[in-house]
Amino acid sequence: MQIEQIRNLFLSDRYITIMHCMKRMVERGISDNAIACSIQTGEIIEEYPDDFPYPSCLISGNGLHIVVAMTDETIWLVTAYKSDPEQWDPALKTRRT
């Protein structure tokens, strides 16, 4: 999974925000603009190639984590949350054990 491919699909409006993600964004006070900015400036920090129904990844950017599933033609925004520094290293890229 490549971040550039995710960015290109996002910029081409080839994405779907699933209901779960919409609900979490409202609950957590995360705007559409914050999601866009995080995808454009963030990086993939974890990959989940065996996720069903499509492979997915975790993007970290601007203090947010976004789970994105992807096919060749579409991305799905699965969930989004504000990164918790107690659960992640200071760079918010590696989980604390």
Structure explained in plain terms:
This protein is 30% helix and 31% strand. The protein has 97 residues and is an alpha+beta fold. The chain has one domain: YaeB-like fold, CATH 3.30.2310. The chain has a 5-stranded mixed sheet with strand order 1-5-4-3-2. β2 (43-48) and β3 form a beta hairpin. The longest helix has 10 residues, at 19-28.
Order of helices and strands: HEHHEEEE
Low-confidence stretches: none
Structural class: alpha+beta
Shape: globular
Tell how many strands the DSSP assignment holds: 5
Q: Strand fraction band? A: 25-35%
Give the averaged pLDDT, no decimals.
Answer: 92
Helix content: 25-40%
Give the N-to-C terminal Cα separation.
Answer: 25 Å
Describe the main β-sheet briefly.
5 strands, mixed
CATH-assigned fold name: YaeB-like fold
Q: Helix segment count?
A: 3
Number of domains: 1
Radius of gyration over C-alpha positions, nearest whole angstrom = 13 Å
What's the level 1 CATH class? Answer: Alpha Beta
Q: What is the strand arrangement across the widest sheet?
A: 1-5-4-3-2
